[in-house]
Each structure stands twice: as C-alpha cells, then as structure tokens.
Design goal:
Helices cover 87% and strands 0% of the residues. It has 83 residues and is an all-alpha fold. The chain has a single domain, classed as Orthogonal Bundle (Helix Hairpins).
Length: 83
Amino acid sequence: MTLDEVQTLMQELYGEADQARGIPSTVAWLCEELGELAQATRKGTREEQLHELGDVLAWLASLSNQLGLSLDEAVARYVDDPP
C-alpha cells in the first residue's frame, strides 16, 4: 500500500469524523499515539509496536488529509534531496 492509498483509505473510513474533529484535536490525538508508540518501543512486544506504528500512520494520514497535503509529496524530499 502506498502512502496515497493510506490517505485514501483513511479518508474513506474516517473523513467526515476527522473533518468534524478538526485539526487541533487531530494533532492532539497524533501526539498521544506517538507517546504510545514510544512506550511500545521501550517496553512493548513486536505486535504492540506494529499496532502503534499503524495508529501513528493513520493519524498522520488523517492530518495530511485535513491539511490538503500529500504524504507522498512530503516524503519525496528524502528521495530527491535528503537533508
């Protein structure tokens, strides 16, 4: 699955709810999921780590959709001109 496909899936599954929630709340949820990923990285099992990685990616895709931005475009700089 490509990043664009992830964004499309999140839009289809949660687009209306995401728009109603708004960007500030989405950022807060993303930060919470990052914290859970950090904890799973330190103390979790492989399955817990995969679960939290998926949650972070889903919330990042949601935020990208709300901002009208493409994750594929965002990551392209790492291909074209890595920092």
